[in-house]
Amino acid sequence: MVLTYLYVVESADYVFLLRITGLTWGNLSTHLAKLEEAGYIKINKEFKGRKPHTSISLTKQGRAAFREYKISVQQVLDDLPD
What pTM value is reported for the model? Predict the structure, then answer.
């Protein structure tokens, strides 16, 4: 689900992903850690003024993996009987 949202934007911040996915802080953090470990996303932590800001973006590898997933899902849907 997180990859789907990141696929259509250049990057998203943590709060945006929390709101759009409905995940808790802990669940989102766990998902992001696994996606980062797999090399699918890059997490950028910085300060805007004095406030911490975390943005997440897809890597080239993550974008390619999602594209393959999208093709696979489309093939399954196309094979379903009417």
Answer: 0.85
- Provide long-range contacts, Cβ within 8 A and 24+ apart, for 29-38: 31/2, 32/2, 32/56, 35/2, 35/3, 35/62, 38/62
- C-alpha 68/C-alpha 63 separation (Å) is 9
Please state, as a whole number, how many other Cβ atoms lie within 10 Å of the Cβ of residue 56: 22
Interval 1-60: pLDDT, tens: 899 999 999 999 999 999 999 999 999 999 999 999 999 999 999 998 999 999 999 999
Altogether, the residues listed in the chain come to a count of 82
